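Minutes, structural biology subgroup

Action item carried over from last meeting: produce the structure token record for IS5 family transposase (Streptomyces benahoarensis). EB confirmed the sequence was re-checked against the source entry. Recorded below for completeness.
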Amino acid sequence: MVSRGDLTDDEWAVLEPLLPVSNNRCGRWRDHRQVISGIIHRLGTGCQWRELPKRFGPWQPVHKRHLLWSADGTWEKLLQHVRAVADAAGDIDWDINVDSTSVRGHQQAAGADQVPPPASAASKGALQGAVRQQLPALLEEAVRQARPLAGPAAG
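Output recorded by EB:
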């Protein structure tokens, strides 16, 4: 069973050739696939780094790799490649529809409860499948979070 954050074999085949290779001077890197799955899990769930499940390994290498790839532009390179592959396959619809409609809410709607209704087990499974299929969206989120971390070096 594939859960939230685990890359499929097809997604991994797209990403693997673009990933940096260890120079063996700093020791052996933790498996890229495991680390990327951990980063995607964190982005999808919003959990803290320290709360990553054990199947992704220790949280420190996952966090450090996210920071490193944020600073050196690896996330943006991966996103550009995934977009190019999806565009070549015709999976991206470039039509944009902008709607400027504005609807004012009733004044009593301001105090409504913010708790969403509980989700059923079937809808949770569908959500997990949707997360796995949205690799470009997850990479966009990684790039969006990486830009403030990269600082002036990423330009």
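Discussion: The mean pLDDT is 76.
Next step: EB to file the record with the rest of the batch.
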